[in-house]
């Protein structure tokens, strides 16, 4: 695929149990000016939408139709060895395709009614959905299915970020048109979540 930036493969083991990650998960709204590693970004994207074996991904999807896309907004010095800009995650290739260059964090924060966490975080994910993909089979139930899927993906992001010692925040309050325009997602894609991610200034709670 032309212009594809390949990501490191996912790790399938860590010192943090699923139970500990669930226990430690919090919404983090302050972020340090610290870049995150390419491995960490790759691991979080894999958790959000990565391909496993065959038709299986890290999250369930009604009918295996996979209506979600993940856009990655990387700030200046936000991710190790990766220029600032907006990228589309391509699960089947475990890679990123560059869509626009530049630091769009301030614009994205403004589109989310000035939420500073988005301006501060080194990277934000935008989860968008193509409802038509699911509607073709599930008609009037499609909208709820797509929203459930975004929830599955966002929770995986929270838990994976926590397991990596990073903070994340599920943001649902934003202007849809402004976020769609910044992301470069097509007309048929609705933004559902912005998830800023980064190192948190306070230690996340310890596991007892
Ligand atoms: C659908 C949804 C939308 C949310 N939107 C925002 C938001 O726009 N801004 C924000 O700061 N937090 C947002 N949150 C995070 C909640 O405020 C947070 O989960 C809640 O206060 C509980 O805190 P905790 O996640 O640390 O347990 C959202 C959470 C969900 C599930």
TrEMBL record:
PANTHER family: NITROREDUCTASE MJ1384-RELATED. SUPFAM superfamilies: FMN-dependent nitroreductase-like (SSF55469). It holds the Pfam family Nitroreductase. InterPro entries: Bacteriocin_Proc_Enz, Nitroreductase, Nitroreductase-like, SagB-type_dehydrogenase. This is SagB/ThcOx family dehydrogenase. Residues 23-198 form the Nitroreductase domain.
């Amino acid at each position: 695929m032309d212009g594809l930036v390949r990501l490191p493969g996912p790790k399938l083991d860590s010192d943090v149990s699923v139970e500990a990650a669930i226990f430690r998960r919090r919404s983090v709204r302050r972020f340090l000016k610290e870049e995150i590693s390419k491995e960490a970004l790759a691991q979080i994207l894999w958790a959000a939408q990565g391909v496993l074996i065959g038709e299986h991904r890290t999250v369930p999807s009604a009918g295996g139709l996979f209506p979600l896309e993940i856009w990655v907004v990387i700030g200046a010095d936000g991710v190790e060895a990766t220029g600032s800009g907006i990228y589309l995650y391509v699960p089947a290739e475990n890679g990123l395709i560059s869509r626009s260059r530049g630091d769009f964090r301030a614009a994205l924060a403004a589109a989310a009614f000035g939420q500073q966490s988005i301006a501060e975080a080194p990277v934000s994910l935008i989860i968008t959905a193509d409802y038509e993909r699911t509607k073709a089979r599930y008609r009037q139930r499609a909208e709820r299915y797509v929203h459930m899927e975004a929830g599955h993906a966002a929770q995986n992001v929270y838990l994976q970020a926590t397991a990596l010692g990073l903070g994340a925040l599920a943001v649902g309050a934003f202007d849809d048109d402004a976020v769609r325009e910044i992301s470069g997602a097509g007309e048929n894609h609705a933004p559902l979540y912005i998830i800023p991610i980064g190192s948190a200034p306070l230690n996340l709670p310890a596991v007892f």
